[in-house]
Write a structure and sequence with these properties.
Helices cover about 15% and strands about 20% of the residues. It contains 4 helices and 10 strands; from the N terminus they run H-H-E-E-E-E-E-H-E-E-E-E-E-H. The protein has helices at about 1-15, 25-40, 190, 250-255, and strands at about 75-85, 95, 110, 140-150, 170-180, 195-200, 200-205, 215-220, 235-240, 245. The strands form 3 sheets. Strands 1, 4, 5, 8, 9 and 10 form a 6-stranded mixed β-sheet that branches. The relative contact order is 0.24.
Amino acid sequence: MKTSRSFLAASLSVLLSTSVFATVSNDETLLANQHQSLNEATLGKGFGPQSPRDIDQLSGTNPQRFQYAPAAPQMNLCNIHFHKNAEHKGGEFTRYAGIGDGQGHQSGYLYTGQLTDAERTAYHQPVCASEHQSVQVGDTLELHYVYSTASVAPGPTLGACLSDATVNPQLRVEAQVLVAVNDDSAADFTRLTAVGQRKGRYQAIHLPEDSGQAVSYLGSTTGPAYNEKGSPYQVTWRVRPKVKKVNIASIQRWCQANVFEEHHAHGVRNLVVQPALLSEQ
């Protein structure tokens, strides 16, 4: 159909504008095919706005609307996890890492700032390693704090955000992009992810609020499982544009033991670029 052909052409134009794709035709084709599959899987199916997106370009034509979730202090923190490389683009993370293995690993967006030689000192231990990837000094990460209006406690996966009494709660994700450095004076990951109760609700008690004016928009859940299909979950996003440096040793400690049973970095979903799958804001 005309819409599909137009979207494929637009996707290729976006790719070719990124220098890493200028000479890697196989990667261009793979990413364009994944965008095309997503387009075909969602066209006319009633899917709401999707995530991740470019937070510096808040325009879209998706007709589905839902109410913004309450502010985080009025909800329960239900899950914390992180992705290797930023899923979102914008702010201080605009350099494309490439498509990686095509399954969400080694893809996404990278911190565009500079690190000192001291911050880049090698860390000679495996950190949050999986069969696909591990965290290394200089890596960009996107940390997700997931909140729910259901009466729930923090736990593993999105399932912790649902309850028998509320299977359709409002969901919110507070996102903070990080860069791993070998510096004891950098932010402590275990402190960033500390959980406590305030006014009877579970909260991330050190949720960052010093990373610039956060961008709020309506979207969905993310992750590479949705590279070629739409996510049916409605999520309010709040993404901070500035990157926070975090001590890599503290990331390792968190992966060794946390209530969320998170032990490694997740892969990323392709940036959603089709206007029909993006909200106006």
